[in-house]
Structure formats: C-alpha cells, structure tokens
Specification:
This protein has 22 helices and 12 strands. With 571 residues, the chain is of the alpha/beta class.
Length: 571
C-alpha cells in the first residue's frame, strides 16, 4: 500500500529546494476540514529561505505538482498547498491491500527480533477478583495484543500478589475463625470474610497485627505449616482467577508472582550495600532519593523482612537476564507512580543501563457510586458477577429482539463480555471512573455491541451477495470508480489509517486509540450502507461495493481482535 505522506514528500522535494524529503514529510499535515483536501503543506517555514511571501510560495508549488497523477486536484489557499488525492488510485490500492492481507491487515514487523514483556492483571491471592482488577487485566491484554501485532516477541506475565504481611493476616484469621469446608466450597468469598474479620478484630486487639507479622516471618523462613496453608490459598485462588480469565479469553505465559523472587532478593540487598546506597533509619534500611525529588525508599523493615521495592528490583533483573527484553511494561494503577519511579531510579543507580526500558503504564481507578471499594471492609463488586450479568442481559435482549444467530448462548457470551471490555477500553486509560451497572450494560451508542453489530451487518451483506461475487471482489479486480462517493471515500480513508492507528496505540500504550478508531469505521460503514445500495443489479458496481464491505469487515475484526473482543458473523 502506498505511503502517501512519503510519496507526496518525494513529489514536493522536486518542487522545493533546500529541504530533504524527510523534512518535507514532517511538515505535511492532514486538514481537519476535509474540504481542504486529503493533505496540506504549509509554506511559512520556506519564507526566510526563498525570500518570498508564503502565499506566493504555495502558489508556485501548487502549479509545479498539480499534474502528478497521484493528485485529483491541487489548490493554493493562502499559505497552504491543499492536495486532493486521485480517488481511483487511493481506493483501489487500499481495498486491494486490506483484502489481500485479511487478518494481517495492520500488522507490522517494527518489533522484529525484540522482546517486550507485558505485566498485567496481577491480583492478590486469597482476595476477590473484583471490578477494579478489570482495568489492568483488559488494558494489559490489549497492549500485549498490539505489541504482538506490531511484530514484537511478547511475553505475558501475571505477577501474582502472593507474598507479604497480608498472608500472615490471612493465616492468623483462618486459624482463629476458619473452616476448611467453607474455603473449599467458596474459597475467595470465604477468605475475604476472614480477612475482613481480622481487621475488625485487630481494631479491638492490636496484638493481632504482631501475631500476623510473626506468622509471615515464619512463612518467609519456610516453616512447613505456614507454607502449606499459603500454597493452599494460592491454588484455590488461581482456580477462581482462571475461570474469570477464561470468560475474558485471556491467557498468560507466566504466573511467577512475588513469592517467586523471595530467594532472589538477598543478592540485591547486598548489591545496594556494596554500592553504598543503603542507609539505616530507625532500624530499617532505606535508599535516600531526596536528590531525585523523591521520598526515601524502604528496602527492608526493622525485622529484616523485605518489601515490594526489593521484590520488583529482583523481578526486573531476573526478567532482563531471562528474556533480554527491549521493553518491560508494567500495567499498574496510577496510585503506584511513586513506587515505580523509586525502584526504577534505584535500578539505574545500581548501574543497570536498561533501567529506563522498564515502563510503568498507569491507569485511573474504579470507584463505586457510593464510594471507593475496600477489600478490608468487604465492599467490592465481583468481576465474575459483572460478566455473568452482562451475558445474561444480552441473552434476554437477543430473545426479545429475535436476533438472527446460530447460537444464542455463544452470541450472548461474545456480546456481553465484549460490552464490558469495550467500555473499559473506550476511554483514555488514565481517567478515573465510577462503576455503574446501567452504564456497563447499556448497549446503545458508541459501544462494543454497536461495533460488533456493524461487523455482523457486513457479514450479512456478503452472505446475500453470494460466493461468486465475494470471490470476484476478493480478487481485487474491481472498478474503483464505483466506490469514490463521499461516504465510501470517508470509510476508505479510515480503513487506510488503521495501520498508523495501531502503531500510535503501541507508542502511547493506549488501546482507546484503536477503540475510538473502529467506532469511527463502524459509523462510516453504516453511513455508506445507508447512502449507497450495495447489492445492485450491475455486476461491476456490486463487485466494487462488496470489495469495500470486505475491507471494512476485515478492519473492524482486526481492531476488535486487538482489544481482545470477538467479532460475531451473525447478530
């Protein structure tokens, strides 16, 4: 497919002296008003070099390049050269490219030979997988898919929260008030009730906190009874988490959590000592980061036990030594901004020159309409409940509207789960939001079901067109003149932009860029479908229009795939 910015830069380089094609390419703009052309070239910067007024320069350039077959029309408007592409060439080239590449349209080899690690989801074991976890889970999964699509060797890591003082609290609560049968029957909800009870009782009896710390110290030392209980809680939690991941269609390459690094931390405590970075503070060991504008980083507590920072340093070095990553991406809430700034700075101070290849991708928080969630108080909305309710409501809508589908259950799952995921990925990731049942289950407007329905509508058009026309359209042997009308052209422009959109989403770690773009494509397709009758009598016209339907369908499917959402053929 022609890279039109590069092509135009080449053409301009023959008409403009003193600037390279690369410099010219960087100056080319895309007008916000489509009436001003497909591309525009501002001439202000050339005034000093050419000693002419910018409008005069623009007029001269427009006259020189207007005869090039790439353009349908070239106009000078004030200091701008406005360029309208040859619609026939643009349309035919784009549609052929999308149809030829199919599921690979938008794929790139930018990451060839480079490994990217994406750490996401990372729930705490023995605690509920609640609606707050969906952010890291689906944003991280989409970033993984985008980087995979861009040609990187990607590694998906679920850094389970399976270590720390909270497990001392959990074991303490289980021993005092627990029941094995209840844990077996409903592990997470039961363990949550114990954890909540611990905090209630600790308010009355502060000695419980010390008891929990002593239990965790035993766990760190590998005492058999504590390790056995911890392992049981971990195994039961993973069963529940895996069930939710299966509903979301999400998998991981590694579940190496915090506990995996427990025997690797002494090396880094020693490295910090050797580098003379450690200072004692009230019996604890810290790294003073004041000169970097940060508060001190606590490395070990006064009792010698380690903290998150120590484990994250160990994990980062392990990953570099194991995977030799190009990027090590952490999809973790913005609450942890300081934590990431601290440990990445410490890794750099230890002399690891790859420290800045560790990238924290923050996101905003989810709260409930009646306030923030609190695991300690037991105020949570379980993610599995949200997904099940979304599927059930979708099933009722399908029955009510008598939707054409081969399997109600399968379609309800695709659309219900897709609705929850799409809503999560439709806004800029850094924004906080309030969870609302009404909003997450609203299928009207710019939603996942709307985009999925558009894909199904395109599939329906192709079924009605018949195999013979679809085969002919798929060959790329079309008369592009039939699909150069305004609504068709706008759709093709958006389809053409899809690969650049994927690249931008990867550069910015921002799946919502893809989400918004496929909403735009879906809306443009529906305008085209409304404005132009696709299945006309004339075979050449029908073939061309069907080719555009195939191109739109492929692009929507690929975009949904990057979000981790399925594209139904019937709906």
């Amino acid at each position: 497919m022609i890279n039109y910015k590069e092509k135009i830069a080449e053409i301009l380089s023959e008409a403009v002296e003193g600037l390279t094609a690369e410099e010219l390419r960087n100056m080319i703009e895309i007008p916000s008003d489509k009436k001003m052309g497909d591309y525009a070239f501002p001439c202000f910067k050339l005034a000093k070099v050419l000693r002419k007024a910018p409008p005069m320069i623009a007029k001269g350039i427009a006259e020189k390049i207007s005869e090039d077959p790439v353009f349908e029309k070239v106009e000078q408007v004030n200091a701008y050269v406005n360029m309208f592409l040859s619609r026939d060439m643009y349309v035919k080239d784009t549609v052929r490219e999308v149809i030829e590449k199919g599921d690979d349209y938008g794929r790139a080899d930018a990451g060839k030979g480079k490994t990217v690690i994406v750490e996401y989801s990372s729930p705490n074991i023995a605690k509920p997988f609640h609606i707050g976890h969906i952010r890291s889970t689906v944003i991280g999964n989409s970033i993984y898919k985008i980087y995979d699509f861009l040609g990187y060797d990607t590694v998906r890591i679920n850094h389970l929260g399976d270590y720390g003082t909270q497990f001392g609290k959990m074991i303490c609560a289980y021993r005092r008030w627990g029941n094995k049968e209840d844990v077996i029957n409903e592990p997470i909800k039961t363990l949550l009730s114990y954890y909540t009870k611990f905090h209630v009782e600790a308010e009355k009896d502060p000695s419980l906190d010390q008891e929990a710390r002593d239990i965790f110290a035993k766990l760190e030392k590998g005492e058999p009874e504590e390790v056995e209980l911890w392992q049981w809680f971990r195994d039961e939690s993973l069963k529940e988490f895996t069930r939710v991941y299966k509903m979301l269609g999400i998998e991981f390459d590694s579940y190496a959590g915090e506990s995996f690094y427990s025997d690797k931390m002494p090396r880094f405590v020693q490295e910090l000592k050797d580098a003379e970075l450690l200072e004692e503070s009230q019996g604890a060991q810290i790294v003073n980061l004041e000169e970097y504008g940060m508060s001190p980083a606590l490395i070990t507590k006064s009792d010698g036990s380690t903290l998150y920072i120590t484990r994250d340093i160990a994990a980062a070095v392990y990953r570099k030594e194991t995977y030799d990553f190009y990027k090590n991406i952490y999809v973790v809430a913005s609450q942890q901004n300081l934590h990431f700034q601290q440990w990445i700075q410490i890794v750099e101070l230890l002399g690891y020159d790859w420290a800045r290849d560790c990238v924290h991708v923050p996101f905003g928080l989810v709260s409930l309409e009646d306030g923030t969630m609190s695991t300690r108080q037991g105020r949570v909305v379980f993610l599995e409940d949200v997904l099940n309710r979304a599927v059930e409501q979708t099933r009722e809508i399908i029955k009510e509207k008598n939707v054409n589908t081969d399997s109600i259950d399968e379609t309800a799952h695709m659309v219900g789960i897709g609705a929850v995921m799409f809503q999560e990925l439709s806004n800029n990731r850094i924004k906080d939001y309030v969870f609302s049942w009404d909003k997450v289950l609203n299928f009207e407007g710019e939603t996942g079901p709307y985009v999925q329905y558009t894909h199904a509508r395109a599939a329906s058009v192709l079924r009605k067109a018949g195999d013979e026309i679809v085969a002919k359209a798929s060959s790329g042997d079309i008369d592009a003149a039939y699909i150069t009308g305004d609504s068709a052209y706008e759709l093709i422009r958006l389809i053409y932009d899809f690969p650049a959109v994927v690249m931008e989403a990867g550069d910015k770690y921002e799946p919502s860029i893809v989400t918004r773009h496929i909403v735009d494509i879906a809306q443009a397709f529906n305008r085209f479908y409304h404005d132009e009758h696709v299945l006309v009598e004339d075979e050449a016209e029908k073939t061309a229009k069907v080719a555009l339907v195939i191109a739109a369908k492929n692009t929507i499917k690929n975009g949904l795939g990057l979000l981790g959402i399925q594209a139904p053929e019937k709906m």
